[in-house]
Amino acid sequence: MTRENRALPPDMAEAAPPRRRRLWPYALTVVMVWSAVFGAVLVAQFLFELPDVPVLATNPAFDVTLLDIQGRQIARRSAGRGAVINIASLPSYVPNAFIAIEDRRFREHVGIDPIGLFRAGIGNLLAGRVVEGGSTLTQQLAKNLFLDPARTFRRKLQEATLALYLESRYSKDQILTLYLNRVYFGAGVFGIEAASERFFGKPASRLTLPEAAMLAGSVKAPTRFNPVANPDTSEQRARVVLRAMADAGFITEQQRQLASASRARITRSEGTPGSGYFVDWVLSRVSGYAGGEPIIIDTTLDLDAQNAAEQTVARGLAQEGEALNAHQAALVALAPDGAVRAMLGGASYRDSPFNRASEALRQPGSAFKPFVYVAAFEHGRTPETVMDDAPIDIHGWRPEDYENKYEGEIPLTRAFAISSNAIAAQLTAEIGPSAIAHTARRLGITSPLASVSSLGLGTSAVTPLELASAYVPFANGGLRAEPFGIVRIRTRSGKTLYSRPASEGVEVISPSVETDMTRLLSGALENGTGRSARLSDRESAGKTGTTQDYRDAWFVGYSADLVCGVWIGNDDNAAMNRATGGGLPARMFKTFMERTERGMPPRPLPGQSVQPLATRQIAKANSERDEFDRLINSLFGT
Questions:
Q1: How sure is the predictor about 64, in pLDDT bands with cuts at 50, 70 and 90?
Q2: Tens digit of pLDDT for each residue in 90-111?
Q3: Is residue 452 part of a domain?
Q4: What b/e sequence results for 424-450 when a residue is b if at least 16 CB atoms lie within 10 Å of its CB, and e otherwise?
Q5: Residue 42 placed within a domain
Q6: Is pLDDT above 90 for 7?
Q7: What residue ranges in 114-197 does DSSP mark as E strands?
Q8: Pairwise CA distance, residues 382 & 388, whole Å
Q9: Residues 209 and 323 placed together within one structural domain of the fold
Q10: Active site residues
Q11: Cα 577 to the chain's mean position, in Å?
């Protein structure tokens, strides 16, 4: 107060300013309200992203079992929804094995186990690394429902939220039932029923205690612990489970000792490591039949032939692949009626499930030339027709023979045997690329073909499956046969949903042209580029193929039993080290064909007509070729 104010009477002194209102309670209230609004929106969005659990729990089964031609199981697949096996139908020790090793407090917690999390945290802290997890069975089920392996905080929060929801919505037995029918056991199988049949050849209701322990032990690391991948490691893991069951009071010590002393009998006859290519190819064609009741597909695959294919390719790439810079291969084998007996779409299905046999488009090179010669014979040429194997110029295009080696005037039998590019280009120019393309499509090529001058040299890309199928008419008397893998689809109760109809086949090559082509194709193995593919135990025929810069190498051939196509190369189209079709692919063909059982029957459906190539037909062609070669030698002094 100033001196002047102190001199004034109190009632005349200047009034003090009013106290300012406190705004922070109001501001805090506003912040809290808006935070609640935004929080509610975020929670709503978070909950909206959760899967529809009731729908997931009640969806019908999608269960498919594939059998080979002898009734052996190739694979059992469930597309996201396994066939529901109620735990009430299982021996009590089966679910108890999973509880003992994965979540001992399953019956007590509410979906999240704080005690388990604390114990896991202490164990990991003492070890200095993650040695155990604290997830409950309910959380593991929630994780499977998400189908998202990302390890993020948001993901773990969703997992915990969904676990709490599952516990509030379902009983413990229902949660355990869902878990056992969704968990992955390795070797491509999901669910307790599929795993039991895959590993032990029996339904889950008949599992023994040692088998149950082995399955329960595999879920921690399915790739490493499943019984097929590593039986000894799986057995050791099963003993850990048995000890946990005894500690939890689920079994007695005597039961543990007896089970530990018993070795589970693992079924090994089902499927092969590379049969996944065929399984995926077949399943892509049956989506309309799957759903509801589990189905069984009787297929055309022969597991013995499939195993031979896988061993042949694996050994061939191991022995020569590195030197040739060839890292991928495909092999497909067809019966003369088009039935797929073996299909290998790559070096390793586990490393790459992309099916190169049915999906990879690659240039066939000279393996395409049989279609040129078919068209040539249909336009009046004969195997005896003589043409000039010499450098040519077709409107500025100058195709070259392999290593620029030319033989001059030679008959078409010799031109085909040495795979003359010059003569194939001349024939294509004379007949017309459109006519060549039409012939190839008629025999079975389905990929687009460019009607250009180079078509006859195999510059339009095709798949190994369609190229092999286009050789089928050479092996069955001139009849086109579409490749197929399904004979019948039926339900487990025995109802037939699909049966392949009888087919007489369509003649796409006349008998005379078919005889001429057999003569040329068998001659290519006798004294041409395919010598390495000639079979020692039966008559055979075929053609090599090598593309520019050695990017692809092929051999496609046949006997009276099978048509087989082999391709080697690289996924990035990198050039190989002088790999030709007459080298590794031809040797793979020979090895595979000689490993398969001679005279393997096509096994057509009742009423189907199949005309396999008669061995005497090849022998006759060989005799005619030899006689003609002697005549040529006497005339030209070669």
A1: confident
A2: 999 999 999 999 999 898 887 7
A3: yes
A4: bbbbbeebebebbbebbbbbbbeeebe
A5: no
A6: no
A7: 184-186, 189-190
A8: 15
A9: no
A10: 102, 366
A11: 28
